[in-house]
Amino acid sequence: ALHREIGEEADLEKLLSSESGWKGRAEQITLLKSKLKEGQRISSYSHTSEQLTQLARPAIETRTGQRIREIELLQSEVETIKEELADYKFKAERLNVKNGFLKAEVETWKDKVRKVPDKSESDDKLIDLLKRELNRMQDVIAKNNLKNKPKMTSEGVNINDINNY
């Protein structure tokens, strides 16, 4: 009976060692029967998968409708965001142009401010020159006034007026 269980060619001492991992025919038969039952159970599900699909169809259609609405909503949001982006790009371009104009204006004012000390210095020189000219002219006028000052007699008569007669 033992030879029928293990077979004619099997070494009995190898089989008895705990490291061999050998299984008897009864154990192999039990293992194969359980695999067969598992296969039959899986195949019975495949026959009912059509039925399961029919049962799940309303839920699938509902979920599909929800997904479609979500996609449409997201597409609408994408379009809105694209429009906002285009608006922001336009505003950014306008601000860049304005910034360029303002930079040019700032440079113009900086040039003017840089010229103020030079202009102030030349204005000071001109003022000094005009003051000297004014003083010179006042001196000339004062000298002319002394020359042309009427000479009066002791009676208060202008001598120049007497000479003119």
Protein topology:
Elements: H1 2-6, H2 12-16, H3 25-147, H4 159-163
Explain this structure.
The protein is mainly α and 165 residues long. Helix content is 84%, strand content 0%. It has helices at residues 2-6, 12-16, 25-147, 159-163. The longest helix has 123 residues, at 25-147. The chain is rod-shaped, with a radius of gyration of 61 Å. The model has no long low-confidence stretch (mean pLDDT 80).
Q: Averaging pLDDT over every residue, what do you get? A: 80
Q: How much β-strand is present in the residues?
A: under 5%
Helix/strand/pairing category: mainly alpha
Largest sheet, in brief, is: none
Could you tell me the radius of gyration in angstroms? 61 Å
Distance between the termini: 186 Å
What string, H for helix and E for strand, traces the elements in order?
Answer: HHHH
Q: Tell me, what's the shape? A: rod-shaped
Low-confidence stretches: none
How many runs of DSSP E, i.e. beta strands? 0
The percentage helix is over 70%
Total number of helices:
4
